[in-house]
């Protein structure tokens, strides 16, 4: 890529939030409710022969996206996204966690959704540029961060099913507190038996909007039963545990095994998942990526072999799972205490991300 393609122009917001307004938001950011003053944008156009280029990299004021009503994304859902966080360290620097893994996953999603790949350096630069201009939006509270949401949409105006020739890549940012709100405590999750989020050859491994649209009905069912997230199984594979609607899942065994479902083609390659696997190996746990069925989960909790279950993802980091509920049975208890291994890995991971624990794997990248 040429150097000029990396040069972002800047048009600053004429109406940024005042320092007081920003302080009021940062005092209690919640999750996904508020957005910073700017956005990063890079457009793509396919050339005559098909091979296209990324152009007009820029920082713009945050605001509505001008789009033709016939834009392909609105009709055929050609869209992908990412999620990662920027943390303010004690020395004032702003740092992010394994962004090259997100860049690689964005491109894996792009290939699956027939969207153009974005050079890793352009991905990283878009984050640097946005965080630089909106640096005052990075919260400093315990467990808080600036959530970065890169996404790519098909903007070409046409009706017809083929890959769009015009695409827009954007990044927005949102100050974030605890994903599940309030104090960290074990969550209840709902077992979806009626709905699947992914199937063989489908898009389960891609981070595309359609997967999440497909999971909403199950999510609503779960919420009606007092659950925060939904667990999906692979019914055609002995009810193998897959993942939650927005998180991967881990099991801690009494004998020191740390088990997570193997990446089967239908599970998202979580960056947190891969980091937890590494931290597990570092502390000498017997780390296993393999098939784990619903029956093994039920039997393991009943016999005491499985001592802890937790969910992990960028948004909620590591969250203990207290109980799994379904129409017919319950595993665990909503009052279960957070497990020791779960909390210890959570603290280590958060410590690395926020700069209080040494980053021995070189996972941090300074953005500003
Ligand atoms: C379906 C799904 N699984 C797992 C994850 C966890 O991935 P990560 O750890 O990269 O945030 C996410 C969140 O991105 C997700 O949406």
TrEMBL record:
Protein origin, superkingdom: Bacteria
Any matching Pfam family: Aminotran_4
Leading EC class: transferase
GO biological-process terms attached to the record: isoleucine biosynthetic process; L-leucine biosynthetic process; L-valine biosynthetic process
PROSITE patterns per record: AA_TRANSFER_CLASS_4
Pathway in which the depicted protein is active: Amino-acid biosynthesis; L-valine biosynthesis; L-valine from pyruvate: step 4/4; Amino-acid biosynthesis; L-leucine biosynthesis; L-leucine from 3-methyl-2-oxobutanoate: step 4/4; Amino-acid biosynthesis; L-isoleucine biosynthesis; L-isoleucine from 2-oxobutanoate: step 4/4
Gene3D superfamilies xrefs: 3.30.470.10, D-amino Acid Aminotransferase, subunit A, domain 2
Cofactor(s) demanded: pyridoxal 5'-phosphate
Modified residues (N6-(pyridoxal phosphate)lysine): 207
EC number: 2.6.1.42
MF (Gene Ontology): L-isoleucine-2-oxoglutarate transaminase activity; L-leucine-2-oxoglutarate transaminase activity; L-valine-2-oxoglutarate transaminase activity
UniProtKB keywords: Amino-acid biosynthesis, Aminotransferase, Branched-chain amino acid biosynthesis, Pyridoxal phosphate, Transferase
Catalytic reaction equation(s): L-isoleucine + 2-oxoglutarate = (S)-3-methyl-2-oxopentanoate + L-glutamate; L-valine + 2-oxoglutarate = 3-methyl-2-oxobutanoate + L-glutamate; L-leucine + 2-oxoglutarate = 4-methyl-2-oxopentanoate + L-glutamate
InterPro entries the record matches: Aminotrans_IV, Aminotrans_IV_CS, Aminotransferase-like, B_amino_transII, BCAT-like_C, BCAT-like_N, BCAT_family
Coiled coil residues, start to end: none
Similarity comment: Belongs to the class-IV pyridoxal-phosphate-dependent aminotransferase family.
Cross-referenced PANTHER family: BRANCHED-CHAIN-AMINO-ACID AMINOTRANSFERASE, SUBGROUP IIII AMINOTRANSFERASE
NCBIfam families named in the record: ilvE_II, PRK13357.1
Name of the protein this chain belongs to: Branched-chain-amino-acid aminotransferase
Organism of origin: Arthrobacter saudimassiliensis
